[in-house]
């Protein structure tokens, strides 16, 4: 088989493998349980690993961000994904693969930034026992546009984070912690927009591969989250 027929056959195979990866993402099923209509599970798994290693999904997500994002607000929040027992023994140890033990269980924390309409811009993965403060600043530096409002909950209320927002030309809209002695200005009306990032996490966790972490490696779990973010952008 040569020429157009060969290229057509290759496109069909690649589309089938993409559909197989999406099926795994939505259901959270083991790769070995992939239905036969998608072809051999080994082929789909190898294709998924290859695309994860080359950074395909993160590159697509970045391209969508550049062309479609709404920079009126930047919202930052975090959520945790419980690590399944099959993923709890990764190569290199749990800390190296962004796993940590909280009071409840072994989990991975997803630190997410989204735009004014609630679409994902970027994320950082850490263990559940890692402080939110250290991950907030890189997200601000990478995604905050000048004159934008940075909206966060009281878990991020610190002078250092407010100063970081100011240094990057933004306006901090952060809920005040009850223990704060000095009360800076706080726009409660604008803060109501923060529900959009909470809705984003709910949409992400419709994908069972995100709601529970089945991936042993940081890179493969990050690739699954990037793919889910792409589907949210294109509204699939």
TrEMBL record:
Lineage: superkingdom:
Bacteria
Q: Which keywords appear in this protein's UniProt record, sorted alphabetically?
A: Membrane, Transmembrane, Transmembrane helix
Q: Which residues form the Transposase IS4-like domain?
A: 74-232
- Chain ranges passing through the membrane: 217-234
Native species: Actomonas aquatica
Protein's UniProt keywords contain Transmembrane helix: yes
| Name of this protein | IS5 family transposase
InterPro entries hit by this protein: IS402-like_dom, Transposase_11
Domain Insertion element IS402-like intervals: 4-60
Q: Does the keyword Hydrolase apply?
A: no
